[in-house]
Structures are given as C-alpha cells and as structure tokens.
Amino acid sequence: MSSAVVKYSREGPVALLTVDNPPVNALSREVRAGLLAALARAEDDDEVVATLIVCAGRTFIAGADVSEFERPPQEPHLPELTLAIENASKPVVSALHGTALGGGFEIALASHYRIALPATKVGLPEVRLGVIPGAGGTQRLPRLIGLPEALRLIRTGESITAEQALSMGAIDEIVPTGLTAAAVDAAIRLAGPGSVLRRTGLLPVASTDPAVFDEALRQASTQQRHLEAPLAVIEALRAAATMPLGPGLRRERELFLERRASPQAAALRNAFLGEREVARVPGLAPGTPTRPIHQVAVLGAGTMGGGIAMCFANAGFDVNLFEADAQALERGVATIRKNYESSVARGGLAADEMRSRLSRIRPTLQWPDLANADLVVEAVFEDREVKRQVFEKLDAIAKKGAILASNTSYLDVAEIAEFTRRPEDVVGMHFFSPANVMRLLENVRTGKTADDVIATVMKLGKTLGKVAVLVGGCDGFVGNRMLAQRTREAWFLLEEGALPQQVDAALVNFGFPMGPFAVSDLAGLDIGWRNRKSRAHLRKAGVRDCDLLDQVCELGRLGQKTGAGWYRYAPGSRAPLPDPAIEELITAHSRARGIARRVISEQEIVERCVYSMINEGAKILAEGVAARPIDVDMVWLHGYGFPAWRGGPLYYADQIGLAKVLDTIRQYADHFGADFWAPAPRLCELVASGKTFY
Ligand code: NAI
C-alpha cells in the first residue's frame, strides 16, 4: 500500500516511509494522507519495531504545498498527522537533509528522534507568509529548546543550521554521511529494551520568566511593526507555557486558522507567489533558449558599476570591470573591497570567500578586454552622448551574440540600441542601489530585443538571486515612473503646509521602512537635483512645479553625506533630526508663492502619495509597459520598500476598492486640476465594469 508520493518499504525490522514528491517534497494532501496510511501500516505490522521518515531527492519536506494556498485546508490535516506520529506505539525517527521547514520541521518535532546531515537547515518560517505554525510547532519547539529561543525563532521565521539545532536541543544527532543507515540504527536502538520513548508533547516547557513575552512583544512592535502573525506566535507560545499539550494545540490551531484567513496573509501569499509569477513572461514560449553566459564585463566602476560587478562575482561569474578613468577605477575597486571587508567584519562572509570573489573581478582600462564578454552591463554616466560613444565602441568590439545591457535609469533603451548595428542584442538591466543588496532587477525590453536575450536576462536575475521583472520602455520604466508621482506630491504637500517629518511619519505609519525625505537624504539629494536639471526643458509653462529640492541643494545640503538635507544629522549619526532651518525655508517658500499653509491630515498625505502611484500604475498597465498587476507590485515590493503585507500598490488598491480609489482621485482632480490627477482610463474602465486590477 505505497502511495505515489510516500513509499513503504522495510529495512530489517524498521519501516521506511520515503516521501518522494519533487522538487521539494512539499506537504501536499497526498503526502499527508500517504504518511498517515503508511504509519498505520507500520503500527499494524508485527514484524516492524520502529518507523523511519526519510525523503528522496534534495531535501526533507521543505514546507507546505503552495498550490493549496488559495483553497480551504483539506483533510487529512497536518495536526492529525503530527499527533499520530507522536502517539505512535513504536518509535518514529525523522531523518533530515536539505531544508526541513514549516510543516516538514513540525513532523520532525513530533517524531521521537531527529537525526540530520551537517548541511541541513531547519526552521518555522510561517510568519513570513502571515501565518503561524499550525501543526504543533509552537507547542513542541519550546518543549525541546525552551521558551526564549523558540519565541525568537518562530517569531522571526529564521532558520538555523543542524549544528545550532543540535546545541539547542531541537535535533538529537548529526551524522556526516550515511543518513538512512544511521537513522535505521537509531530507530532499532530506540525500540530496544530499556529505551523509553520521548514524546515531545509530554515534556514540560522549562519554566522561564514571563518577562520573555514582554520582551518578545517589544521586539515585535519595533522590528515587525504592523505585522499580526508575530503577535499570534507570542500568543501561541503563551499557550504552550501555560497549558497542557491538548488545549495548547487547540489554541494554536485557532490562531493559525484566524491568521490564514487574514488579509495580511493573503497579501503576503500574493507577494510570495509573485516571485514565481514574474519569472514567467507572457508571450515568451516556456522553452525559449537562453544564451550561455560565462564571462561578464561591467562598464563604469562608479556607484552602480561596482555593485553590479559584486552581484556577478557573488554568483560565481568572472567579471572584467572596465573604466575610462584610472583614478575612478582605483576608487571603484577600493569601494568594492571595503564593502566585502565590512561583510567579513560583520560575520556575513568568510575571508577566503571574499578573496575568491575579489579575484573574480578584474579591473581594466583596456577596451580589448571586453571582446570576450558574453554579457556587457553598461553603468557609465547617465548622459545620452556618453552612452552613444560607449555603445558604438561596444558594437565594434563585443563578440557576435554578446548581450549588451544598459543600466540606464531614464534614457531610452530603444534609442541606445540604435547606436549599435545589433539592436536585437541590446536590453536594459536596471539594477537598484546598492546593486549588490537590492533584490529588484527591472529588465527593459525594446521592440527589437531578441526573445533569447529576454529569456537570458530573466534567467540571470534568478542566478543573481534577484527578483527580475520584465518591463517595457518609458520614462523611468515602472519603478521610477511611479516614484516620480509620489515625489511630486510629497513636495507639493510641503508647500501646502506639511513638513518633511510629517510626510515621512505618515508613510512609515503606512508601512514603508522609511519616508521619502529620509530616503532622499540617504541616497543624496544631488541625484534628484541633477535629474530635475536634466529635465527642466520638459516642464510645461503653467503647470505647477515645486522647486524646494533645488533650494535645499543650493544651500549645499545634499543629505546625510553633507550632514544635512531635508533633515540635519548629528556628527557620525544617521538619525534624521527635524531642522528648524528647513521649516523656515519651506514656510518662506509657501509665503513667496502665496500659498496659505494649512493643516494636512495623515490620510491626505497617504492618499496623495499612494493613489497618485496607483493611477500611474494603471496607465503603465494600459500601455503594456508592465504585463500584469503583479509585475508592477513586485517592482514596488522589492525596489522601493512597499509593505509586503499590503501586497503591492495595485493589490492594495483592489483591497481598498477601485471605486473608492477612483472617487478620491476625482476629488483631487477637481481640487488640484487635471494636470496630475486626471484618472487613468484603465482605472475608470475597471470601475465601470466592476473589475479589479487582479
Ligand atoms: P557614477 O557617476 O557613480 O559612475 C559612473 C562611472 O562611469 C564613473 O566611474 C565614470 O568614470 C565611468 N565612466 C564614465 N564614462 C565612461 C566611459 N566612457 N567608459 C567607461 N567608464 C566611464 O554613476 P552611477 O550612479 O553609478 O550611475 C551609472 C548608471 O547607472 C547611470 O546610467 C545611472 O542612471 C544608472 N543608475 C543609477 C542608480 C543610482 O542610484 N545611482 C540606480 C540605478 C541606475
């Protein structure tokens, strides 16, 4: 009675339950049912003395089956399985390799013995999807490792190594190799005379100070502000500490089901599934070939070029880092080294790994060194003429079939492509700063970009550990084009009566990690200033424009790097301090413009900053610059810190109700004029037909 995904076999007196549900042995309904049936068979088999749960393939059960996410939970439920394991009359051993996460780790926790290979990782990452472990994880882990560690791990969703798990008591043994054989031995030992079964659920939770809960609440309120699942975790662990297993499990299940049905969990699922969704490009056949990429060249060793070179070196590519200017090259390489060294100092990178990454980056001033590159990423000055020279030169030098990518933020990639005689090989790869950290990669296609080039840069995104979103050409692509709306409204809010700290606080309360003014202080105000200057000729007479940024920059206040920007900074500190000088500058500006300053509500700040983005997002969709709402949302989640628990700007709009969003946009259009607030036709159509973005 083996099922397709759970095989029953015997190894002497031990029943082997082998889960084989590629690729990650996700805990589907079939796996749960198969394990329950196989466990019952082992219990009934008189020749069996113990049961072993192992997994085929590259990992132990790595978590839930995402395809079941949007359906109601199906029987048999996981808690039934974990209880059956724990209550089995014969010992059950779990043999772990790869990643034993979520439900997989809960099965291990319910077993009577856990044995693992050294490279195994275990954890309960449920909070990241807005839920809590729902099959005993919150009740059993604290019984094994104590409350404080269990609280920390489940609240943050962090996974730990086998070594750490062993030292905490979450697993019982690590074997270097021969996992199944060692696990069979352990099972026989456990079934032997004199051995008493250790049922996790019957262990006491080591008594600890109830202050651990206050501490966990304090940390959740600062590090995980707005998130509901961490609070439910704390609640479930409180139950573990104060109740016997049965009632504790019931409380856990209630909390789990509540969280599973919550809007936050739905939004986080959208964000999670979105990572796979954006990798599938509509219109691109799934089997589209990719071009082989081994040798990479990066042009320009400035802020972006250095970070991009690190990205590729981190992923194992050889990178020629080319500069026109010897000093700039030296500076760029020194910055790369400094960045790696600080990762080593923080313990995030081994020193020998740093050396091998650095050795993959080869600085050069010689054009011929680019001739072998399979991919060239250009990150030189944002200047059309400079890009023209560089791409003409690349066209002459790069080998046939090489992909020529530009990291431009605003220039027209289609025009850059025409600087070459091979526009089909040209694409945008728009990284975000710092490029070695930020997960977003906007890949920009032109009308001429070849399909295999698109397929290659999308696949590369994954290889680099990025979330790659394919977008079309337009001013600012998806991310910066929407950002421009928010930035403009934020400046207008200042001249109408708000202060930077008030706008920032409203957006932080909304869920952004930082407000727009604090962000521009961090990035450097000169970036936006330069941008404004370069587009001055695009401004139309009679259309409202706020030049507060220019005024702040003209004072030499360029943000954190000059000790002052929209805020001031104490020496050596990055904490933004509201500055009376800025308040004075803003109020004088309002006066000069004849604007009577008024009290502006938090609601208005959020609506004007976020709804203006939503309206632009609707235009972006209608123009086909982004193929689907999820593409727009993933850009904002991974490039700009839009709160994942709100799902992304367009997902959020659907939740508010598009009719309400449109109505508010119309009110702003009535009040402020249609220059910036004319409702996007796509939004009007959706509302008229009762549809949503998704
Ligand atoms: P940067 O000024 O820090 O670096 C540009 C580097 O290019 C300089 O080191 C310069 O010496 C070098 N360079 C100039 N002409 C060259 C040539 N002909 N050949 C080789 N090297 C040359 O500029 P940054 O900020 O790194 O920007 C580079 C590109 O990345 C621009 O297109 C920019 O729009 C884009 N970008 C910038 C972001 C940012 O936050 N700074 C974010 C995303 C894209």
Give the secondary structure arrangement, pairings included.
Blueprint: E1 6-11, E2 14-19, H1 29-44, E3 50-55, H2 78-87, E4 92-96, E5 99-101, H3 103-110, E6 113-116, E7 121-123, H4 137-145, H5 147-156, E8 159-161, H6 162-168, E9 173-174, H7 179-191, H8 211-223, H9 229-242, H10 245-260, H11 263-277, E10 295-299, H12 303-314, E11 318-322, H13 326-345, H14 351-360, E12 361-364, E13 375-378, H15 384-397, E14 403-406, H16 413-418, E15 426-431, E16 440-445, H17 451-463, E17 467-472, H18 479-496, H19 500-510, H20 516-523, H21 525-534, H22 548-554, H23 580-592, H24 602-622, H25 629-639, H26 649-656, H27 658-672, H28 674-677, H29 681-688
Parallel strand pairs: 2-3, 3-4, 4-6, 5-7, 6-9, 10-11, 10-13, 11-12, 13-14, 14-15, 16-17
Antiparallel strand pairs: 1-2, 7-8, 15-16
The structure holds 1,4-dihydronicotinamide adenine dinucleotide.
The site of 1,4-dihydronicotinamide adenine dinucleotide has 25 residues, from helix 12 and helix 15.
